[in-house]
């Protein structure tokens, strides 16, 4: 399903299973926490996954939240998606955050807490210039195309 060779993966914690896809064709492999974590509302924690990888140059690992945990418990990743550089050989870690305003999130060692996607990435160079070409968007951004009126109620 890919023209890339299998990615070398070191299991730093033998008690944690190989990352795996829940279903054939899934974009990501699930990552587990190596530690129990209790996250009070609004709190975050950096947790280990027990794995290290050697991604091919020209690819990047992206750490995404799991949608089920996000929808059910408000659990997400602070820096989503986390960036795992091809040259990184340390343990992949995940900076989890509890976005739920009221409920504590309790995670146990071995729970699947996030997912790792591997994508090809262009390693472009940058060249300094004096001006940029004209486009219809120009410098417009951050809502310049409209569509936000009425989304926020007066006084909120
Ligand atoms: O969710 C993440 C994000 C990053 N990393 C590791 C792999 C990545 O290659 C390295 C550096 O990440 P990043 O470049 O996002 O962090 P930084 O704050 O810029 O650190 P550095 O100065 O080390 O680049 O940390 C993780 O294990 N998990
Ligand atoms: Mg960096």
From TrEMBL:
CDD domains: trimeric_dUTPase. It catalyses: dUTP + H2O = dUMP + diphosphate + H(+). Residues 16-146 form the dUTPase-like domain. It is an enzyme of class 3 (hydrolase). Substrate binds at residues 66-68, 79, 83-85. Residues 138-149 have a biased composition (Gly residues). Pfam families: dUTPase. Keywords: Hydrolase, Magnesium, Metal-binding, Nucleotide metabolism. One of its GO terms (molecular function) is dUTP diphosphatase activity. Pathway: Pyrimidine metabolism; dUMP biosynthesis; dUMP from dCTP (dUTP route): step 2/2. Residues 137-156 are annotated as: Disordered. Its cofactor is Mg(2+). Its EC number is 3.6.1.23. Belongs to the dUTPase family. This enzyme is involved in nucleotide metabolism: it produces dUMP, the immediate precursor of thymidine nucleotides and it decreases the intracellular concentration of dUTP so that uracil cannot be incorporated into DNA. This is Deoxyuridine 5'-triphosphate nucleotidohydrolase. It comes from Rhodococcus indonesiensis. The gene is dut.
């Amino acid at each position: 399903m890919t023209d890339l060779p299998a990615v070398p993966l070191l299991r730093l914690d033998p008690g944690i299973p190989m990352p795996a896809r829940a279903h054939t064709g899934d974009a990501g492999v699930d990552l587990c926490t190596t530690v129990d974590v209790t996250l009070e509302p609004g709190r975050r924690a950096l947790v280990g996954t027990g794995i290290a990888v050697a991604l091919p140059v020209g690819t990047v690992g992206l750490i995404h939240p799991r949608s089920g945990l996000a929808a059910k418990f408000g659990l997400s990743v602070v820096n989503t998606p986390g960036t795992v550089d091809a040259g990184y050989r340390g343990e992949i870690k995940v900076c989890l955050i509890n976005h739920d305003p009221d409920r504590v999130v309790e995670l146990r060692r071995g729970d699947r807490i996030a997912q790792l996607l591997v994508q090809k990435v262009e390693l472009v160079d940058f060249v300094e210039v004096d001006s940029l070409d004209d486009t219809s968007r120009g410098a417009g951004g951050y809502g310049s195309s409209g569509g936000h009126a009425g989304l926020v109620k007066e006084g909120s």
